[in-house]
Structure formats: C-alpha cells, structure tokens
Structures
1.
Amino acid sequence: MKTKILTLTFTVIAMIAFTISFTHSNPTERTGRMRQTDGMYMFYQCDPVDDYTYLGTLKTTVSWSGKPEELFGDMKKKAKKKYPTADAIIIKTDALDEYDVVQFK
C-alpha cells in the first residue's frame, strides 16, 4: 500500500514538473533570438513577441550594391534619426521599400 501511494505521489510530481516546463517555454516553438546591430533590432517578415509602441512607418528607395548590410544599415540610421528612441524596425514586405519603426515597452 505504501509503495502504491509513493509511486502515485512521484507520478503526480513528475506530471506537475512536466507541465510547468512547458508553460515557461517560449511563446511559440519557432521563436528565435534577435541580434542587435547598430543599436537596433531588425525583424524581417516577422513580428516581435514583446509588446511595443508603434512610432511610424518610413519609406526607402531600394538601391544598393548587393550587400544586405548596406540597405539594412541605411534603414536603421534613418529610423534612429527620425525616432531617436526607436528600438527596432519591422520589414513586412519583400519589396523592402517600407518598414515600421517601434519602441519596446
């Protein structure tokens, strides 16, 4: 009888621990960590998980030498110039001609 109670107790504890481990995981199974470059985060065809304040939308002319760093660097500089408190840019289209500027809460 004591063995059954002990086994049941361990089973319940294991199930609770298993459930807690999943409730404290990332918001989705495919969440990644963003790298900050030039003092800003860049989200391309994705949205930040954390809450943020929308600051504005900027447009850009897509003319670059073929290195993405050049285009993305220009986008970040323009965003920081117009919105000094900006934390990130969100590029939602493949055209790369428009992007949102946001600040995390």
Note: Residues 2-23 form the longest helix (22 residues).
2.
Amino acid sequence: MKLIFWVYLRVLAVVVYVQYIGSQFYDPTSEGLAESVYRIIDPLIVLGMLIAVYYAYQRKRAVDTASESGVSRDYLEANGTFYLSIALLVGLLWNWVGFQFADPVTTHSWLWTLIDITAPLLFFATSTQLMTSEE
C-alpha cells in the first residue's frame, strides 16, 4: 500500500507543479481554463493531503514514543511535517469549499499560491519518508 501512495504522491507533486507553472502560460489572463483544470486537480490534492496527514501522524506518534529525550532531527522532521500538513489541509479545505460552492473570485489567491508551492514539497517529503520506512 505504501508503494501505491509513494507513486501517487510523487506523480501528484509533479502534476501540481506543472499545472501551477503552466497555467501562467496557457491562461495568463485568467479566462477560466486554469480554473477548470484546478477543479479536477483539487480533489486529488485533498486526497494527497489526507495521506500526508495520516502518515505524518504515524511518524510523529512513533517518534514521540521513542526513548530518546530532547529534540532530535527525527523529532523536528516528524513534528514539522505533521503540523505543516495539518495547516495546509485546513487552508486547502477552507479555500476549496469556497471555490466549489461560492464564487471562485472570493477565494484567497495568496493561499492558493502557498498551497500550490508547498503541497508538492510536502508530498515529496512524505513519499520519501514512506519509502525509507519501508526498507
């Protein structure tokens, strides 16, 4: 199962980056073409965020139960990934619900930019952790 999630998160990270950069070229005046593509990609990003939150929580729980005391690299990575994924999931759901059920113009464009830049980094980091924990 981890292999499937690894591939999904890696492919999704590339797709989100290509869409974010490509939309500046094929829809520079925001005529709605990029918006229709994002309507397809957004549920996939939500699923990827849920996967990232789940595995970040699993890693955080494993690090917290370890016998090490003090702050270590694993502790910082586990907690940083977990809390970043929670914050991005909340921001994504806030904007996505507003985008789907309200006027897309009323959503926060700065939050979409933040999500489009940081979510692929989170997906890549989570998929890397999935493969290193598999070995």
Note: The radius of gyration is 16 Å.
3.
Amino acid sequence: MRDEPAEPGIAPQGECSHLKQGGRLTPEVARLGQLWRAHLSSPPLAGRRTDTRRQEIALFESWLGSIVEAVLERPDGTLSPAHARLLAIREAEGNQEIWAAAGELGEPARAYVARLLAIQELLSKLPRER
C-alpha cells in the first residue's frame, strides 16, 4: 500500500513526463495518467497491515503501479515487451483472487480494486514498443 502519495512519472500540473521530452500524448496515455493520479490521491485502503487480503491488494497495486509509471516515463507512452508479457500473463490468470480479497474486505476495497482493474485494462490496450 501507499504510505505517501508519491507520483513518479507524473510531472507537475498533471503532465506526463514524456511530454517534456517531446513525446506525443495519446488519449489512452492521458486517460492512464488521469486514472493513476486519481488513484494516488485517493485514501489508502484501510485495515490492518497484517491482513493477508489487504496485502494481496497492496502487492497488486505495487505491481501495477510499476508498469503505469514505466509507461508514463516512456517518450512514446508505449508498453515495453516485458510489461506487455506480464499483463498478458496476469490477464490469462484472471483476477479471482484479488476480487475475492476485495469482496471479503467490503465495499471500500471493492471500489479500490475496481479502479486498479480499470487501470490494468487500459494498460492492456496501449500500443506495444516497436
């Protein structure tokens, strides 16, 4: 989970950092940046840090965040081949465990995970590095 709302990959005033390098902001990357900023500015998931369900969600958030930040840092806003493979594997495995954890924790967790899964879906639609 996030202890501090740090925003690596997001430049001040909400611009993706790759714009400063002359990159082109696609609507998908702009939406990804908006969703990620909104997620980071939302309150962290409440609960005990020792709760394995909360830990499962935190691990997913951390994993997903590393991919989001990498995309937002790339001048062309594309997925690297390695990240594209990771997303494909995750998609093939499904999200049953993360949904089960969120379901057991209740509504705030379900909304939290739904937001993360929307970000994951958007990532899977981004163009791949050429």
Note: Residues 1-21 have pLDDT under 50 and may be disordered.
4.
Amino acid sequence: MMSIIIIKIIVSLYALLMILASVKELNSKSRWGNILNLISGFTILLSNFMNLGLFKTVAIIGLIIFELTAILNGLQNNSFHIKHHLTRFLITLIFIVLIIFI
C-alpha cells in the first residue's frame, strides 16, 4: 500500500514538472506538443483518484506521450539533445516498470 502511494507521488511530481515546462514553452513553435503535454499532465494527476488499474493505464500512456512530445518539440525547435532525451527515456522507463509492478 505504501509503495503505491510513493510511486503515485513521484509520478505526480514528474507530471507537475512537465506541466510547468509546458506552460513555460507555450509560445514556442511546437505549441500543440505543449498543449498535449498539459492535457497528459493533468490527466496523470487526476488518475491518482481512479482505481489502480485505471491509474496504471492512464499514467503509462501519459508518460509515453510526454516522451514522444519531448522528442517532437526538440526536433521542431532544432534543439534535439540526444543525452537529454536518453536520460528522459530512462527515467520514463523506470517509472513505467515501477507502475507495472505495483
């Protein structure tokens, strides 16, 4: 039970960071990617109040959307940094594995 709460808090903090980054970048070229990140972030936050099965599904889909839109934003803004995206990918992968096994 405690591990579920800890994982939800960590994923929610990550979602909040993505929301803040997306709000900051709303005026960039990739506006739709940032809007999609905002929607995904708020959906992940709301998934904390759903049952565990729905939380897992929504959180995993939201994390994948975060990763895909980050890559898209980097390519559209000509600021794609491979080390940054590999780090994000590893963090996302760890979150997904933790979510699957709770």
Note: Helices lie at 2-24, 31-47, 52-76, 82-100.
